[in-house]
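Tokens for chain A. Residues wanted.
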């Protein structure tokens, strides 16, 4: 993996919001907060938007699960996931 100071953070999200406008607002807020937290660009895809089978295969091969919302449905879990991303990116820069 090539990850350095100029690298972005790529995230695949599974959004559990049925209304498109509400989901869009939630994603925008998450994206904005993560870019502020990491001080680097964040690229996000949702499970539903991922239609390219080759890209899906590559993502499935390389992804690292950092949070499973099915196990904890609260913001504490999301904050823990953000901390995990921060730790992971810091380790990759070394």
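Reply:
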């Amino acid at each position: 993996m090539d990850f350095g100071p100029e690298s972005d953070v790529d995230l695949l999200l599974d959004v559990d919001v049925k209304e498109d406008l509400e989901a869009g607002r939630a994603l925008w807020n998450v994206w904005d907060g993560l870019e502020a937290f990491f001080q680097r660009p964040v690229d996000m895809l949702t499970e539903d938007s991922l239609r390219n089978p080759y890209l899906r295969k590559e993502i499935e091969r390389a992804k690292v699960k950092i949070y499973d919302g099915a196990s904890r449905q609260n913001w504490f879990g999301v904050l823990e996931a953000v901390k995990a991303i921060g730790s992971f990116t810091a380790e990759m820069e070394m």
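The chain has a mean pLDDT of 75. Strands lie at 9-13, 42-46.
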